[in-house]
Design brief:
The chain is built from 13 helices and 12 strands. By secondary structure, it is an alpha/beta fold. Helix 7 runs parallel beside helix 9 (250-259).
Length: 345
């Protein structure tokens, strides 16, 4: 028979043993919760949307789908947020971005003008850009190999030399080139400089380049139509640069070209689908899949943007619009047609 003292000792031992078991289980539970939080906590990525184009929207969508798939395979997830810059109210956009900074892990932005607005905000969180033609000219990075700040990403410029050779290959009688561009965006302004240099180094060339600046007040389809009607259509080829204003009002420029039977070369493949004659364009979809997703994973794993080189793709997409060729009276040979990556008919 157990006395009261023995029972008390046994009870105390049992309580201490149960307490140890409870603490042990609680510790395991805490470790599990900590592991779960580390492994499953959603990273917050802010998609910044400004002056938008079809290529920018597609770049964001491909990036989002690709990154979601990549982190899902590791048992993680992304919480996606959006911030839109509406109209010309840049200061309100900057204030909203600063307010959101503490709650996000990464900013993703497509296009030079909007990337420059993000830069102007002065936020310190990592910023990943895409569809920017000249990130150094836009002051987003110090240089392509070593960005040196909290910005990195993918640039989309096709070299002017390569584009000029493409134009001369398919339109060999070209002597008078007119290039239409937005001078208020540093990217197309730099592209025009590059075209000038490319033409100047051609041997035995008498090619003339006319530079046409789109006025700042041209911000509608009607305004673009009216502006294009002021341009002398006497030219061998009309060139358009890659920028948001050209992308958004490109159809009005195309109308001018077709009406005057002028071959139009665009730096954007999307405009060939609308009626430009041809393009050697950047592969925005592939860049988002192959470059942007990879860069984002590195940043979310702790690599600083300043240590991630700006990327690009070495190959481009040659697209012809055969319907437009017929409308303006140009007949491409079978060899030229076979050289295209894509034909619009």
């Amino acid at each position: 028979m157990l006395n009261r003292e023995t029972i008390g000792k046994n009870t105390n031992k049992r309580i201490k043993r149960d307490k140890r078991r409870f603490l042990s289980k609680a510790g395991l539970l805490c470790c599990f919760l900590l592991w779960a939080q580390t492994s499953w906590a959603a990273q917050k990525i802010l998609l910044v949307i400004g002056q938008d184009t079809r290529d920018y929207a597609m770049t964001r969508q491909v990036f989002k789908v690709g990154l979601d798939l990549a982190v899902k395979q590791k048992g993680q997830s992304i919480e996606w947020l959006e911030l839109k810059q509406i109209g010309e109210n840049k200061q309100e956009f900057i204030d909203n971005l600063k307010e959101m900074e503490d709650d996000i892990d990464l900013v993703f932005v497509a296009g030079t003008p909007t990337a420059m607005s993000v830069l102007e905000s002065g936020i310190n969180k990592p910023v990943l850009f895409a569809a920017v033609a000249n990130p150094k000219k836009a002051n987003l990075v110090n240089n392509l190999h070593s960005p040196g700040r909290n910005f990195t990403g993918a640039y989309c410029a096709v070299s002017a030399n390569r584009q000029l050779q493409t134009v001369l290959s398919y339109l060999p009688k070209t002597k008078n080139i007119t290039i239409v561009y937005n001078p208020f965006d540093p990217a197309p302004a730099a592209q025009v400089e590059d075209w000038s240099k490319a033409i100047s180094i051609l041997k035995n060339s008498d090619i003339r380049l006319s530079k046409i600046k789109i006025p700042e007040q041209v911000n509608s389809s009607q305004a673009m139509l009216e502006f294009m009607n002021t341009i002398d259509p006497t030219m061998d080829v009309l060139i358009t640069t890659a920028d948001a204003k050209i992308a958004n009002y490109g159809s009005e420029i195309i109308q001018f070209a077709i009406r005057n039977k002028v071959p139009m070369y665009s730096s954007l493949n999307s405009l060939v689908e609308e009626g430009a004659l041809f393009s050697l364009g950047f592969k925005f979809k592939e860049a988002a899949q192959q470059i942007s997703v990879s860069q984002a994973i590195k940043i979310l794993n702790g690599v600083l943007p300043k240590d991630i080189p700006v990327g690009t793709l070495p190959e481009y997409s040659l697209v012809f619009n055969l319907k437009t060729a017929q409308q303006i009276g140009i007949e491409f040979s079978e060899k030229i047609i076979e050289s295209a990556d894509e034909l619009i008919q």
